[in-house]
Amino acid sequence: MKRKPAVAGQFYSSDASELSEEVGAYIKPGIKKERAIGVLSPHAGLMYSGQVAGAVFSRIEFPETFVIISPNHTGLGSSVSIMTSGEWQMPTGDLTIDEKLAVKIAELCGAADADPSGKAHLMEHSIEVQLPFILHLSKNVRIVPITLMTDSIETFRTLGEAIADAVKDCGYPVTIVASSDMSHYEEETVARSKDKKAIDMILALNPEGLYNTVKREGISMCGYGPATTMLYAANRLGARKAELIKYMTSGDVNRDYSQVVGYAGMIIK
Fold this sequence. Notes:
Elements lengths: L1 E2 L12 H9 L13 E4 L4 H14 L5 E7 L8 E3 L4 E4 L2 E4 L2 H10 L4 E2 L16 H7 L4 E7 L4 H18 L3 E6 L4 E3 L1 H16 L3 H11 L6 H13 L5 E8 L1 H4 L5 E9 L1
Parallel strand pairs: 1-5, 2-9, 3-8, 3-9, 4-7
Antiparallel strand pairs: 2-12, 4-8, 5-6, 10-12, 11-12
């Protein structure tokens, strides 16, 4: 199955040359790259969150495969949907799914549904928006797309451990991407205060702390599930440190600070 872009022309340019130029403006050349077990990257329109996503992908050594975990905004598919075969088409190139790794994760995670048809991913934007950055820096990586429509921390733990165990066995470098924006439509100072609490839990490599903080503080972080899952996987893979690469809000772009969305870029290593 070839998945066609769902939000080209909306979240990013549908023209290949324009998109390449757009992404190139956010990529930081000459930065020392480091191995990353996991990353947190936002998924808004590139004009809003591109600076943050670009800063993250500029900093990491590219693996052979990215496992990309997103929240499910569309309601299609099941609670955990793993697209296990096919290609994702983008204006600047195509990305092939790492079928062996995807199937292994689905087998190890009892809560996951293998989704070779890609139904859950057809209209979902939050993995797609990561791909222009990946393709700008490498045409030779594969992906495993996973989208989550559940609130269960037990599912996040089970999936994270399944990802880690599959990665351990695959024999090649893999980086886990948690796709998430931070607070939504809060006043600037409130958003920054709430987001710091969530970011601090990620810096502490504390998946339970992140989950509980988001719930307790009412933080409208859409991808707390992917981020929690990524932390469970990263810890099982031996993570020792997390770093905040860049944080900003939509107010930094449009100068409207009354209702902002927060964007954080982080690396787990």
